[in-house]
Amino acid sequence: MQFYIDTADIEEIKQANRRGWVDGVTTNPTLIAKTGRRNEDVIKDICKEVKGLVSAEVISLQADEMVREGLELAKIADNVVVKIPMCEEGLIAVRRLASDGIKTNVTLVFSPLQALLVAKAGATLVSPFVGRLDDISTDGMSLISQITQIYQNYSLNTQVLVASIRHPIHVLEAAMIGADIVTCPYKVMQQLVNHPLTEKGIAQFLKDAQSMPK
Ligand code: G3P
After folding, report:
1. In terms of residue numbers, what domain contains 31?
2. Does the structure show a pLDDT above 90 at 84?
3. Pocket of ligand 1, candidates 28, 86, 130, 166: which has the most ligand atoms within 8 Å of its Cβ, to mutate?
4. Does residue 28 line the site of ligand 1, with CB under 6 A?
5. Number of domains the chain is built from
6. What's the DSSP call for residue 153?
7. Catalytic residues
8. pTM for this structure?
9. Averaged over 182-207, what is the pLDDT?
10. Ligand 1: nearest atom to the Cα of 185
């Protein structure tokens, strides 16, 4: 399973990259706005840091505009993936960008049938949001199982990128289902490392090492 980092913060990307946790990056307008910088400038800097795919989101809602924005974003670097919101116009844009060889990631996916349409449109990635489904008392992870099953049934090539990850259990469940990619905040990546018994064990080993003859 690939690990993407869900951030537009270059320092976080550098730190996670140093630890080998960055197979790719996802951004969205909310994350870019936090940087106080232009979308294109942030994406350019991220692409300098990372070899894997970097999702950069369009902000238009009309297919023609989405395609125009997408082509501009795709010029920034070879690893840019154009992120498009799930809607009828978005699916038209995905189809057109795909026929031009541009990679796309359809975001804000909340149902398996939306994901089926995304794959039929020829998207590279689909982003189902598990945390936001959990927030409204729906089981986000069952969406991942459904999408994975449908894609297997019809040998669809779109990769499942589990988004809106809030805690390590989301990562565990995505891995158990066999999702292709998870995109996590840096904080969740760090949480994956820790275990209280590991910390206790390290403290004990260090203590015992003190008693060894010098
Ligand atoms: O990048 C999209 C996604 O991961 C957003 O997560 O926590 O805002 O629902 P969240």
Report:
1. 2-210
2. yes
3. 28
4. yes
5. 1
6. H
7. 83
8. 0.95
9. 97
10. 4
